[in-house]
Write a structure and sequence with these properties.
Layout lengths: L2 E14 L4 E14 L3 E6 L5 H8 L7 E6 L6 H4 L2 E4 L11 H11 L4 H14 L15 H13 L5 E5 L7 H16 L3 E5 L3 H7 L2 E6 L2 E7 H5 L14 H13 L14 H9 L2
Parallel strand pairs: 3-7, 3-8, 5-6, 6-7
Antiparallel strand pairs: 1-2, 1-4, 8-9
Helix pairs in contact: 3-4, 3-5, 4-5
């Protein structure tokens, strides 16, 4: 298997106070991100996610351990193959969305004409074409988040690091963001995703690494982590309440235990999405 990113035994501590007391943020954290995968980096607040991401981007230096991206140490050439969306992007509000994303495209080395074209395409992908000529200061929080994703993808990077990409989005916006991320995967991008939205993570990610108190608590494919070999979930339609009781009795005769029997229902996010688009 080909890995785009490999972190090995990352350790990071910070010193606080007059006595320089060391607080460990990461303790021998290792994980690998396969090419073409959506990889979730999860954990509660303070678990070490942001520290790990900053080390991967070269914004922090680890105390020990190593990071390889595209089988190389982090360098300017490697960074040009990466895109990054921070949790709280802070943009120049006097620029329009098109000017903003074009500006970032120029920073990535694109020429003026190509930067303008790529910026238009990126804004279209994230659903901001209609607001491309509006000042960013007039954007809502969700629109700024979309603009942040546009600047992260404008130079067509191979690896995307997305820190809370659904932050500030309403349920429809979250669903649209998930669709955009899946489209980016379809286009061959490798995506490292940090998020608190576990329902979205479950929908999007192929593999996850869960951090707890600076250490890896669990890691692997979602199927391997979440499947329960000794249980099964059956969805049965067109069954009366009377027949449900018969099915329960038959299952019990086979030695199975019925943990739950209830009327089928769709998820709130799917229902919200359907009624909001009527």
């Amino acid at each position: 298997m080909e890995y785009v990113l490999e972190a090995k035994n990352l350790c990071k501590y910070f010193k606080f106070g007059l006595r320089s007391i060391a607080v460990e943020a990461l303790k021998n954290v290792s994980f690998s991100v396969p090419k073409g995968c959506i990889f979730g980096l999860l954990g509660a607040n303070g678990a070490g996610k942001s520290t790990a991401i900053k080390i991967l981007l070269g914004l922090l230096k680890q105390n020990s351990g190593s990071v390889e991206i595209f089988s190389s140490k982090l360098s300017s050439a490697v960074k040009r193959r990466m895109g990054y969306l921070p949790e709280t992007p802070n943009f120049y509000g006097f620029l329009t969305g098109l000017e903003l994303v074009s500006f970032y495209a120029r920073l990535c080395g694109l020429s003026g004409k190509e930067a303008h074209m790529r910026a238009s395409d990126a804004l279209a992908l994230v659903g901001l074409s209609d607001a491309a000529n509006r000042r960013v200061s007039l954007y809502s929080k969700g629109m700024q988040q979309r603009a942040g994703l546009a600047q992260a993808i404008v130079h067509d990077p191979e690896l995307l690091v997305l820190d809370e990409p659904a932050s500030g989005l309403d349920p429809v916006g979250m669903a649209d963001m998930a669709d955009i991320i899946l489209e980016l995967k379809r286009r061959g991008k490798t995506i490292l995703l940090s998020s608190h939205m576990l329902a979205e993570v479950e929908k999007l990610c192929d593999e996850v690494c869960i951090l707890s108190r600076g250490q890896v608590a669990a890691m692997g494919s979602l199927d391997a982590l979440l499947n329960k070999p000794d249980s099964a979930v059956l969805g049965i339609s067109g069954v009366s309440a009377q027949n449900v009781e018969k099915i329960e009795r038959y299952a019990e005769s086979l030695g199975a235990k019925i943990d739950e029997a209830r009327t089928g229902r769709e998820s709130l996010s799917e229902f919200f999405k359907s009624v909001s688009k009527r």
